[in-house]
Amino acid sequence: MMPEITPVQLKAARALAGWSQQELANQARVATSTVADFERGHRSPVANNLEAMRSALENAGISFAQGGAVVGPALTARSRSNVPAASVRPIRWVSEADVLDWAGRRDAQAGLPELVRRLILAEAGYQPDFRFPSGDSVQMHGWDGVL
Prior knowledge:
Elements: H1 7-17, H2 21-28, H3 32-40, H4 47-59, E1 62-65, E2 68-71, H5 96-103, H6 106-124
Antiparallel strand pairs: 1-2
């Protein structure tokens, strides 16, 4: 029996595939509301629909590893040396030049707090006293963020 996919894993896998919720729904032959409600944590789909979404993403080259999703085959600590390097496709890498180019743009000032917010949410989950204003709110006085 395959481990169940979490809403966060499904959303990450869909992002890796570059699909919208509608595209995943079409590929899996489920309703768009099934995908959207599951990703938001509003409901769990029936087993057949969840398996259809998993299969659609796996057919697109996404593998589900423990707690996440990766492009290409899922690797474990033991099997890394046994997998030929040519069979593993890396996720789009962000280079130093990409970061420097982004840092020099005006939208980086407004977007950095949102990036930090998303990284914290991905690692720690929702926190009650959590605030990282972004966009036009970065022009306001006070702390850049509160955690």
